[in-house]
Amino acid sequence: MEKAPLLPQTDDDAMSRRPTPKRFSRFHAAAFAIIFGLFWLARTWDCEHYDEGAETSAKVPLEVHIMSKCPDARDCLQYLVIPTMANVSDKIDFRLSFIGKTTEEDDGVQCKHGQTECLGNILELCAASEYPDPKIYLGFTMCLERDYKMIPKKALIEDCALEHGIDFDKLNDCLSKDDGAYGMGMLRDSVTRSAELNVNTSCTIRLDNKTRCTINDGEWVDCPDGHKPDDLIRDINRLYDEAKGWTD
């Protein structure tokens, strides 16, 4: 008998109509060429040896460790991580990791808030795997976290997938792949990483491979440089400039 997918199938969502583009005149084309030329000139001024690889390597590692059914994860993402990413995402190498406990039985994972949390963690890992752009999978994750008590209800997943341009069927396929072993493997690897880094509190933020801030039971702790978005943005800008050699 064919194994049923972990999430029910749904009909394809109707595609929204895009507005008809306005006519692009010669004047607009000329203006665009001038503006683009000025932008490129500004970018390359005194940068004869500009290296696209160096731009990538200068990005600052920002890693967030959470449990999907934890209110601190919701608050951490909503009040610090998302506002920060909205301002300096181009300077960040972002990673989302999960907290749990590995077990020897069937190479599984135990989650603090039960198996529904494990499934929520896997859902968010699947979103990151299928849609690697943090603007997509982090938005989807935040959408789930707002109603974390409902994870992994089908209606919530469908609504959040639709809101952030994620194909529900792709998530379903990821969850069902290899009879669930694929998703569980991703979760086990993620939980193992958090444990090896001695991270066991949701939510923990690590910046440049060091613990930057933690929220626990609604309280910000171990945040000597501040826990507001402006504080984190300041630190990211400083580290990015140092990596590129732009310090005074």
From TrEMBL:
Main location (coarse class): secreted
InterPro entries according to UniProt: Interferon-induced_GILT (IPR004911)
Lineage: Eukaryota, Fungi, Dikarya, Ascomycota, Pezizomycotina
PANTHER family linked to this entry: GAMMA-INTERFERON INDUCIBLE LYSOSOMAL THIOL REDUCTASE GILT, GAMMA-INTERFERON-INDUCIBLE LYSOSOMAL THIOL REDUCTASE
GO MF terms, alphabetically ordered: oxidoreductase activity, acting on a sulfur group of donors, disulfide as acceptor
One Gene Ontology CC term in the entry: extracellular region
Keyword Signal: yes
Family: Belongs to the GILT family.
Protein name: GILT-domain-containing protein
Subcellular location: Secreted
Species whose genome carries this gene: Trematosphaeria pertusa
Protein keywords: Glycoprotein, Secreted, Signal
Keyword Translocase attributed: no
